[in-house]
UniProtKB/TrEMBL annotation:
InterPro entries: Aldose_1/G6P_1-epimerase, Gal_mutarotase_sf_dom, GH-type_carb-bd. GO terms for molecular function: carbohydrate binding; isomerase activity. The lineage of its organism: Bacteria, Pseudomonadati, Pseudomonadota, Gammaproteobacteria, Lysobacterales. This is Aldose 1-epimerase. One of its GO terms (biological process) is carbohydrate metabolic process. It comes from Pseudoxanthomonas suwonensis (strain 11-1).
Amino acid sequence: MAPEVEAPGPLTELPPGPLLTLSHGAVSIDVAPQAGGRIAQIRVDGIEQLVGYGEYGSEAAIAWGSYTMVPWCGRVRDGRFAFAGKDYQLPRNLGGHAIHGWGFVLPWQVAAQSEHELELVLELPADERWPFGGRARQRIALEPRGLLLEMSVTAGERAMPVVFGWHPWFRKPERLEFEPTAMYPRDESHVATLPLVPPGPGPWDDCFVNTAPVVLHRAGQVLRLTSDCDHWVVYDGTAHSTCVEPQTGPADAFNLGSPQLQPGQQASAWYRMAWD
């Protein structure tokens, strides 16, 4: 059973707490296990890559570092969905919807640590916040000029829907190379809908179908992003940041049709950041 924890909401201030620092070659990272198991900062050749806590007014849990979204990504419309013939109501925490799951606001436990790798685990809630339980695990592995992020989710004693991914707040690039094949249109509630449409012009806060690398150019560096996920959200509506978020399904996936896990079944995905 998950511990009884009162989780902060996405707009609640969430300081980093104690940090774990790892380095390898040109890359160093600060990880904040107590602040949603997020990466608080990435430095490559000494250049900071992420919007840090307290920068640009980004004290809110949703607005800094690079964190996991689990057991869902983006907004679940009105916090409501049906699964296995039963209706569920999640706590609504942003604009009347439920956003980004619980992984980014709950403390993670350190399962293993070595010179260049870190593994964190989270027992998902098994209460009104998320009645299905389950477990999430993330592995953070440093490379001489890169970072490999891996995540897995394992169902507990109950079958459950699941969509998961990553939400990095990159410092604003001078240029973004992104060529998705399709986009989920948003309605007046700012929630993804079907059918898919051709990608439209930015600025974006949208979910796309994409299998190509995404490339960011900033401060003389080239950052190449790849993943085995075929859904990506790009949010570039702020002047100081751009979020590039691979995930295993679309926003509002629980209502649009999401993957499911049977009891004890596991799903996994990876996300690589590589700097030229």
